[in-house]
């Protein structure tokens, strides 16, 4: 199944939802398919990874409040809203520090992951510098007619060059994975907030 076929079928199965929710869901899964394709999958493989249209639509409908799937206006819940506000105020000494802690942990993990990626690229740069140094050393000892030292420097430079090339491609794959994970996480968080905002 192609991307367009998947999104078209998904749109039909979500016909009972408001147009805004349908558009957001289609945009979310379109981004997911594009991300999978950027990571090397074919269009059909990317669509298959998401699961069947029925499974995806069932998950979306399960996340949508029941009142959003009916045309009748929901009953007023002013008293409930008041209780929510009271509970939020009374519980703020408990949930607010926990929220700050959770956010701090997430940010720390995110920064740490990118720090590891940057460190890997630093290693690649070190290998590249070693390769350059080996070549320059080979040339220098070659002019001094010191063949043994020249060969040693050349060999070391070639080894460093090989390691630099190999590790560079590995770092690129890691960086792509982190970027994909970041985009997926932010899309998921945005989708959750959109759902929550629409429900309220």
From TrEMBL:
Family annotation (InterPro entries): MFS_trans_sf
Keyword Repeat: no
Keyword check for Membrane: yes
Residues spanning the membrane: 85-107, 113-143, 150-169
Signal peptide coordinates: none
UniProt keyword annotations, A-Z: Membrane, Transmembrane, Transmembrane helix
SUPFAM superfamilies linked to this entry: MFS general substrate transporter (SSF103473)
Protein name per Swiss-Prot or TrEMBL: DUF1700 domain-containing protein
Organism: Merdimmobilis hominis
Lineage, top ranks: Bacteria, Bacillati, Bacillota, Clostridia, Eubacteriales
């Amino acid at each position: 199944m192609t991307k367009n076929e998947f999104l078209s079928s998904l749109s039909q199965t979500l016909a009972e939802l408001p147009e805004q929710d349908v558009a957001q869901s289609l945009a979310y899964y379109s981004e997911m398919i594009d991300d999978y394709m950027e990571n090397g999958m074919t269009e059909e493989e990317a669509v298959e990874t998401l699961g069947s249209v029925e499974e995806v639509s069932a998950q979306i409908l399960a996340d949508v409040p029941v009142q959003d799937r009916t045309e009748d206006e929901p009953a007023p819940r002013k008293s409930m809203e008041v209780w929510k506000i009271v509970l939020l105020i009374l519980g703020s000494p408990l949930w607010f520090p926990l929220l700050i802690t959770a956010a701090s942990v997430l940010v720390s993990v995110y920064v740490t992951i990118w720090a590891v990626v940057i460190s890997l690229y630093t290693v690649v740069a070190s290998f590249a510098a070693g390769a350059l140094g080996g070549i320059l050393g080979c040339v220098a000892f070659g002019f001094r007619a010191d063949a043994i030292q020249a060969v040693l420097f050349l060999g070391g430079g070639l080894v460093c060059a090989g390691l630099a090339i190999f590790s560079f491609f590995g770092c690129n794959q890691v960086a792509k994975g982190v970027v994909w994970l970041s985009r997926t996480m932010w899309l998921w968080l945005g989708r959750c907030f959109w759902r929550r905002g629409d429900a309220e």
